[in-house]
Amino acid sequence: MAALKLLVELRQRHGQPAPETSSEADRKAFEQLATDLLTYVRNAISAELTREQRADLELVEAAQPESREALLLGQVSLARRLPDYWQRFEAHEAAHARARLEAPASRGSWLGRLLGS
C-alpha cells in the first residue's frame, strides 16, 4: 500500500494522471517503486542491526533466488524477530517517501524529451 500511495503522490506532484490498473506501464512502475521501497527499508533496518542479526537476515534472504521475494522474506523475518519492526518500517518508509517526493522530476531519455513525452 505504501508504494501505491507514493506512486499516486508522485504522479500528482508531477501533474501526471493517476495510475490505472489496466496499464502494463503503470503496473511496472508500481512494481519498481515497491522494490525500491523494500530495498531502502531493508538497507536502513539492516544498518541498525547487530552483526549477528544482519547475518541471520542475509541467510534468510539467500534462501530465495529472486530479488523481490528475498526482500519480502527478509522483511517477514525481521517482523518476527524485532519487537519494534513496524515502528522502524513506518519511519523508514516515511523517509523514503519524503526523499522521493522531494527529488527533482526525472527528465527521462533525450529521445523522450525530444518527442515531448
Could you list the spans in which at least 5 consecutive residues all have pLDDT below 50? none
Main sheet specs: none
Order of helices and strands: HHHHHH
| Class from helix and strand fractions | mainly alpha
Average the pLDDT over all residues and give the rounded result: 88
Would you write up a description of this structure?
This protein is an all-alpha fold and 117 residues long. It has a domain at 28-102. The chain is built from six helices and no strands. α3 (51-62) crosses α4 (67-81). The two termini are 28 Å apart. The mean pLDDT is 88.
Brief overview:
This protein has helices at 2-13, 24-48, 51-62, 67-81, 85-102, 110-115. By secondary structure, it is mainly alpha-helical. The chain has a domain at 28-102.
Task: Offer a few descriptive terms.
single chain, 117 residues, mainly alpha, 6 helices
Task: Describe how the helices and strands are arranged.
Blueprint: H1 2-13, H2 24-48, H3 51-62, H4 67-81, H5 85-102, H6 110-115
